[in-house]
């Protein structure tokens, strides 16, 4: 695979990861999130609360058909859509 | 009425310090459970830094439980206009001490322990006979007592932690024959597996179950087990933590999520002499499924009130037998008939309601009704109490005998502003809306919300 092809593949994966996070958040919160961006902060701005974290994890694991190592989870991974996408892509080896 | 008796602070002091006039140093170390839970296996849990900042500023509630002759340590000095408002209401206030440097992510006790001068001040107060009365007793408050020579007015941290455990609650309720939802305590991964087996059977019957961290903050650390995949996942998650840590002991409960009409919170006080005093029962108000506050009085029918009082008496004696002394809050449920589930959770610490009692005694007279709640606010920049007073106008209660909003914490309004100084932040304006009738209460509540929304400091109910 050329560098350009690898870069494109990563970009697509990232786009899919962000879309999947958006969809999972909408499912957990029970409403659409039309203004969501990668910079959106999950707790302060999107409205996720501590009781929604487990549900979000379950939705993401199901969507990606993965099982996350929850011991690796840190508060910083839940800072924003971007940090969560970074974490998920890292866990999936993208 | 729900047999609400005046003189709570004196009764409390008699119970925990032996005399109605005993001087106390109050600390509002809310979410003490976070300290109790340290070292325990938990489910994944995260929250916003701004949310912790607001919780840590709930320390200011202590101002309204303490009285003249008492002391309160706060993370920052209260807003001068807010203090003036409290004096205008005729409230005798304690001496306020403020930490030199507060950190929004630390609770007040942690701030004091890092303070260069306050421990010495507390040592002086200990010499004058003051005792420490925190929101809840953890190892941090014990450390503070060791360093200052001050005694705790209450029980040791390990006993408080143990009594606060949801495992203790289930065992004691079974022992006392108190009705509680089907459930199982889990102190090993195998026990968790067995409990989840029971949960699967309930799920197959269309019934819901939850897994709870035994040392979770009230209302947090709870997962509704929606399906078998989630149950398997919880089991593997906890099993993995145990395998990696080498610490076999876990502390969870699995129990049925029973259908109910509403939530209750009641409080009793256990004295060092074993005497048990029922303080009050409050009924949660929800709107659209979201917790809104507590109604005063709870307006329970006689059979439900009797069941609550009886449970309080039994639990109080049982806790006294274990050596516990202090305030106890219990979460309970109204069932779908005319009964109660009298004990879902025992909290071996003060409750939010504990800090409302003095105001209740002085401002919610016979025939009056009240709603204790918080109004969510969103601010672009810090807004002081004078600003809020202008917004609230005549909806602010300023004298006994009237109707309106009593503000009982102002520090939580601007607490989030220090986390991201250049951004809008969420806060909470805590208060008690007092009215002469249910209709007036609803109108006042709506008026206050409308004023906050109109002035652009709130966007939600």
TrEMBL record, chain A:
Organism: Streptomyces lycii
InterPro entries named in the record: ACP-like_sf, PKS_PP-bd, PP-bd_ACP
Annotated Carrier domain residues: 12-92
Name by which UniProt lists this protein: Acyl carrier protein
PROSITE patterns: CARRIER
Keyword vocabulary terms for this entry: Phosphopantetheine, Phosphoprotein
Any matching Pfam family: PP-binding
Superkingdom, natural source: Bacteria
TrEMBL record, chain B:
Origin species: Streptomyces lycii
Keyword Nucleotide-binding: yes
Origin superkingdom: Bacteria
Pfam families in the cross-refs: PreAtp-grasp
Keyword Nucleotide-binding belongs to the record: yes
Name of the protein described by the UniProt record: ATP-grasp domain-containing protein
Keywords: ATP-binding, Nucleotide-binding
Domain ATP-grasp: 170-377
Listed Gene3D superfamilies: ATP-grasp fold, B domain
């Amino acid at each position: 695979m050329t560098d350009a092809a690898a870069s494109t593949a990563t970009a697509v994966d990232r786009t899919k990861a962000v879309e999947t996070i958006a969809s999972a958040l909408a499912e957990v919160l029970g409403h659409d999130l039309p203004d969501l961006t990668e910079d959106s902060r999950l707790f302060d701005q999107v409205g996720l609360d501590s009781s929604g974290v487990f549900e979000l994890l379950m939705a993401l694991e199901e969507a990606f058909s993965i099982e996350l190592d929850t011991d690796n989870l840190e508060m910083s991974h839940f800072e924003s859509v971007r940090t969560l996408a970074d974490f998920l892509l890292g866990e999936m080896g993208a | 009425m729900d047999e609400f008796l005046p003189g709570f602070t004196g009764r409390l002091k008699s119970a925990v310090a032996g005399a109605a006039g005993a001087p106390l140093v109050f600390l509002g170390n809310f979410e003490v459970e976070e300290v109790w839970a340290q070292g325990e296996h938990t489910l994944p849990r995260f929250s916003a830094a701004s949310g912790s900042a607001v919780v840590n500023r709930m320390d200011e509630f202590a101002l309204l439980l303490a009285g003249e002759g008492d002391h309160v340590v706060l993370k920052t000095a209260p807003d001068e206009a807010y203090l003036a408002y409290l004096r205008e209401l005729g409230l005798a206030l304690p001496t306020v001490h403020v930490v030199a440097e507060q950190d929004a992510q630390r609770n007040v006790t942690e701030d004091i322990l890092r303070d260069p001068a306050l421990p010495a001040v507390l040592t002086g107060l200990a010499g004058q006979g003051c005792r420490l009365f925190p929101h809840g007793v953890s190892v941090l408050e014990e450390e503070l007592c060791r360093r200052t020579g001050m005694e705790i007015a209450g029980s040791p941290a390990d006993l408080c932690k143990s009594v606060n455990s949801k495992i203790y609650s289930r065992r004691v309720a079974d022992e006392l024959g108190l009705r509680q939802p089907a459930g199982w305590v889990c102190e090993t991964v195998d026990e968790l597996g067995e409990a989840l087996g029971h949960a699967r059977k309930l799920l197959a019957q269309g019934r819901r179950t939850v897994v709870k961290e035994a040392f979770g903050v009230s209302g947090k650390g709870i997962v509704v087990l929606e399906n078998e995949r989630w149950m398997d996942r919880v089991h593997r998650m906890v099993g993995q933590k145990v395998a990696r840590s080498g610490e076999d002991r876990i502390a969870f409960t699995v129990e049925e999520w029973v259908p109910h009409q509403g939530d209750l919170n009641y409080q009793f006080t256990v004295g060092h002499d074993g005497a048990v005093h029922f303080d009050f029962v409050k009924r949660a108000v929800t709107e659209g499924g979201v917790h809104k506050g507590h109604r005063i009085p709870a307006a329970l029918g006689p059979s439900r009130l009797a069941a609550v009082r009886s449970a309080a008496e039994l639990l109080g004696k049982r806790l006294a037998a274990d050596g516990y002394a202090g305030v106890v809050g219990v979460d309970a449920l109204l069932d779908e008939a005319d009964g109660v589930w009298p004990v879902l959770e025992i909290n071996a610490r003060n409750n939010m309601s504990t800090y409302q009692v003095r105001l209740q005694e002085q401002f919610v007279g016979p025939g009056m009704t009240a709603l204790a709640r918080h109004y969510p606010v969103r601010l672009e920049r810090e807004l002081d109490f004078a600003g809020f007073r202008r917004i609230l106008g005549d909806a602010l209660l300023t004298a006994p005998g009237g109707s309106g909003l009593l503000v009982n914490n102002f520090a939580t309004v601007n607490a989030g502003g220090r986390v991201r100084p250049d951004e809008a932040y969420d806060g909470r304006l805590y208060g008690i809306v007092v009215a002469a009738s249910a209709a007036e209460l609803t109108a006042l509540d709506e008026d206050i919300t409308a004023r906050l929304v109109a002035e652009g400091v709130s966007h939600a109910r």
